Amino acid sequence: MTAHLLLVTLGPVQDFIAQARRTRDLWYGSYLLSELGRAAARALVDGGAKLVFPSLATGDPQLVTCLAPLRDDNTPPQNIANKLLAEVPEGIEPQQLAKAARKAVADCWRDQVAAPVKRKCSGLLAQNIDPVWNEQIDSFLEFAASWLPLGGYAATRRQLEQAVAGRKLLRDFDPWTQGRGNVPKSSLDGARESVLLPPRQRAIDNAGRYRIADGEQLDAVGLVKRAGGEPDQFVPVVNVTLASWLSRASQVASTELAALETACRNAGVSRVARTDLPCVSPFAFDGSVLLQSRWRSVFDEQGLQGDPEAWGRRHVRPLFRKLDEPYPYVACLVADGDRMGRAIDSLGSADAHRAFSKALAGFADAARKVVEQQHRGALVYAGGDDVLAFVSLPEALACSDALRTAFESAMDTACGSLAPDKRPTLSVGLGIGHVMESMGDLLTLGRQAEREAKRDRNALAVLVDKRSGGSRVWHAQWSTHPVRKLNEAAMLLRDRIPARKVYEIASILRRLPKPDDASGDGWPRVLALDVKRSLSRIEGADLRPEGVGLSLDPNTGYAALYAQIEAWVARLLIARTFERAAIRERRSPEGAA
Amino acid sequence: MTTTTTRLALVPRDGFFAKDGRGWHTSASGRGHGLDWPWPSTVLGALRSLWGRGEETRSNTTFTPDDWRSRTQPIHLGRTLVLRREHGAAWRVEDATWPVPLDALWLEGRQEVHRLDPVKPIAPTLGRDDDEVRESLWRPVPDDAQKPLAAPRWWSTEEFVSWLAGKSVSVRREALTTTRRVQVHVGIRPEELTSDDGVLFSHDVVETLDPGGEWALGVEVALPAGELPKVATLGSDSRLSRVEPLPTTLFDPPARVLEAFRASSVGLRLVATSPISFEKGWLPDGFVNTNGEYRGRLAGLNVVLRAAFVPRPIHVSGWDMAKGEPKPTSRMVPPGAVYFFERTDGQPFGDAEAKALWLTALGTRTDEGFGRVVPGVWRPTRNNP
Questions:
Q1: Candidates B142, B146, B309; nearest CB to A170
Q2: In the predicted model, what is the mean pLDDT of chain B?
Q3: What is the pTM of this model?
């Protein structure tokens, strides 16, 4: 029998990860897919195959199961992507190897991941739930594999990609046969039935430990995501949101912060165990207590005693005499390589592809350092060319830029033979939403922003979704220095131009005709004069258009002028979010609330 | 109780919110997530409410939950359409709008939509379980390594009919789409009487009115006698919809599709236009493994299933208003799925079959409006893998 190339893919990925209400749902969903990929990789290697992607050889420690966020040596496990490529030597039947990988993944999911959760959550589960549980667990995984005799490497790999892509156009499924009927559906996706008891019959300790709210319903897969890890190993997104603020607070209000920590300890507020992360180290308790609007909910959800308002006034308010209250918005960062397929197509051998895989794994390591160590964020996933993370707003732009630089460096190593303009680039989306939105909704914002960045590729896009309604998006290619432009715009808003003036200029644009509808020659002059007049009315500022980055020359034509002002407005309104998130110290305690 | 088939358009005046199976506890503050178009069962619920309210008014009584169940039981939903027209215009055949089928692919830099045609597999595959017949179904071989672009949700009748007739379709500059927004409800801090950012709750709203026109739901429904109110309520927060009569012609098969079949079509592609509930999930009812192929009957003919392009299932549940409890969940084939068939006798499909299959219902729960499909021509390519 000849040697073969074997391609294996696992799913579901995007939807499964996005079905998340809490941080632990999102993190564990992502982690779980990586562990299932690891099980498949292990089965392929054990069966005699040589992995190409991921590039892990027999005996590599990254093939060992890791059921915690960190390995014994305190390093996080390498993320394994959901697509695996392997060389199958002569004498090994590729179909049998694919079946072995499928069985290994299914066994890992059912026995190592789901079964322990079912045991420890028995106090939450409805009566006679086994048939429903088994059906939901057993129908969850998607698997597709294809293999061909290994001729020319590049051509064979491409044929396999086509075969699997064609196969995945049929997502075959069975109907539900074990439903309970008129019971609520999962709060995460609404697809599967809840496996939980009615709220009042649930074991209180289990419900509290896994933060299952009374109105919340979880199916078997959702419960595995929620209860699959130890609760305090996850960093609540609110702590990431406040990471920069807390870091500053630890410097300028250390006494007040220490007092708050003591109060949290005494009251029994949930702890966060990952004090090795810079986003947690200044304050190792659930950061929700720093948001006034969450005081009551924190006490209810965590079963704390006492009056939440009085507790907050006594222990949290003192911090607000030193720093303005934190701005409760967070950035979901989604990054993805551009034109990766073209680069992989140019690899002529399995060894070249392995080297490429290693360089990508190196980028994933670098991404973790950039997000977690350099910018106080929390990394959900970094594997291949994909990055998913949460970052506080004061760090988000710099973090995006640093990731872009790290990716360029990795591609210099991986694709040294390609001309620089042919190497893959990184598009980064920052979806900014309120900290109280579900993790799934925040992730959706991040992905929308990433899609915007992908319009031009090699770009940054920022999407701001305000809780009070409405969203805005702005994107620019890295070559135009978008981070510098947004920072400059934020400074402009802080020092020279009030935000309402930007809205006023936006209103001028709305009142004038769109360039396609404008007839006559006078419109450029009208537009330029109106904007100049608006700027000149800023009290005491005496602003000229050039001073705020506008060049209002009517001779450039109406369409160009309109587009320039429109882009300026969009940039400033996005920058306003970053400006509002800037951390401000209070000079005078009397001025505080 | 005798019923009469009536054709109506429900024209939302303030968008709609058709909540999906998730409850309100999807975020810390309460967030309801909505569908981008209501399930047929939701539309049927709206029609039952419409007729029932008219009946309550006529009889000057208030129905009990049991009355609602029994008296509206004969109301069945037939064919449904997604409609969009210019403001102020009467309804025309061209106003029907269709889900974009899964065999249509958008690729960067192309002026025309790429058509995915299945051929015999180029390489062996393995799926989630062992089913050799399923693995031997035909598949497309994408001729371009680039990732496809996101497909639009809807096509106009002109575009859809061209596709079904085997003609090319140009890529539009702007996609036909509804606008979705999040409606936020404000909470007030009682001690300060100011808005409390922490206790807002919100839900999706799909807007159906825009400067270019308005969207509506076209239905064919079996109703008992009685005059209908002019205004219906639709979806999770009972948003108002105007009720308008609809011409029969909107539901007729387009002449271009029939002509294309008249010119002979060796193969048949069936496109789902509403969710379909099959007893075996993705596999059409009545199709069984016969000598290594899935064979069954369609429009009175023995056929073989050559290929199936089916996305992940959609999960259809809902809320039983009369019983006050959630309905069970069904996994269904989504609109836009495409099935490819050939006749076992090797003969072509004709316009008679096309006419019979136009907006016909397959599968189960068809009296609730599920299971509608339309036919298109297909010229199978015989490759030599």
A1: B309
A2: 93
A3: 0.93
